[in-house]
TrEMBL record:
Coiled-coil residues: none
Organism of origin: Bradyrhizobium zhanjiangense
Protein name (database record): VOC family protein
PROSITE patterns reported for this sequence: VOC (PS51819)
Alphabetical list of Gene3D superfamilies matching this protein: 2,3-Dihydroxybiphenyl 1,2-Dioxygenase, domain 1
Annotated InterPro entries: Glyas_Bleomycin-R_OHBP_Dase (IPR029068), Glyas_Fos-R_dOase_dom (IPR004360), VOC_core (IPR037523)
Length: 151
């Protein structure tokens, strides 16, 4: 008898960032205005409501161990991944970049016109995780804070 595999429903639910100093990273993401949930976890792990997938912060060495990956050497260059903070307007992009830098982020690339008709810039968090702040054609941000993609 051949068993048919049930195809699971694909979904991205949590993005976990490995961080060097959980206390400092919690303070940083709190200061950006993300809403922390499940605070009972203390400083073991932090979960944030982002209006979409959950953002989690977890100590770098423990995250590496959990994934059965080496803790060292830690990458000091681009890791092949960015996070994005989509905005409604170009003015909002500028405001978010300035706000993040004021809260301790490092400006990686100033906001600029993109070749696809958008407007974007980059900052990095305390551990160098790059965030793109962007307004892009075909991607709208609703009142629910979720992105809505054109067909």
């Amino acid at each position: 008898m051949v068993r048919e595999l049930t195809v699971p429903v694909p979904r991205l639910t949590v993005i976990t960032l490995g961080v060097s100093d959980i206390r400092a990273s919690i303070a940083f993401y709190d200061s950006l205005g993300f809403s922390r949930r499940l605070k009972a976890t203390g400083e073991a792990v932090a979960f944030y409501d982002t209006g979409g997938p959950v953002l989690a912060l977890y100590p770098w060495d423990q995250l590496a161990a959990d994934a059965a990956l080496p803790d060292n050497p830690r990458p000091s260059t681009f890791r092949g991944m960015t996070l994005a903070w989509n905005c409604r307007t170009r003015a909002e992009v500028d405001a978010v970049l300035a706000f993040a830098v004021d809260k301790g982020a490092a400006l990686l690339k100033a906001a600029h016109e993109t070749d696809y008709g958008g407007y974007a810039g980059y900052f990095t968090d305390l551990d160098g995780h790059p965030w793109e702040v962007v307004v892009a054609p075909g991607i709208d941000v609703g009142d629910d804070r979720r992105v809505h993609l054109a067909e």
